[in-house]
Amino acid sequence: MTPDMNPRTDKAPDRRADDHAQPGWNLLFGAWLLAAIATLGSLFLGEVMGMKPCILCWYQRIFMYPLVIILLAGMFPVDPRVVRYALPLAIIGWLFAVYHYLLHSGFIPESLQPCDQDASCAEINLQLFGFVTIPMLSILAYTTIIALLVMFRNETRHPHTPHNRTPS
To answer: What is this structure's pTM?
Structure first.
């Protein structure tokens, strides 16, 4: 009997198990799906609807777009180290989104606005339901991605806690 064999069944573990059965795969997939939707949404607004992104929008895109590739690479097979690369990108992107929202809402004076006349960071180009703006959507996306990555890190850090055990 080899050390990785199941003592109850005297069988080796099934190495063909699907990757999504690994601990935390669903959390990682959720973060990837949100990053993909945010990326496609920003491309749709810019390329299809013709909305020119401001400088702060570009910075948020710079930190969101790589998340799609990094999180996808971390899912097959599940690699707990993906948090090391994805979490800093998400936090920096979140900081840009919060700054943009505060500027958009008037809490930061327009003199601190990094944008030019072509695409103003303070101008509201899209507003859903009367209060949802693009910077608010960006904050929600980054916040959810950060929460999912932290939950993934906690789940993969302690894989043998009772809630993570798979039934035998």
So the answer is: 0.78
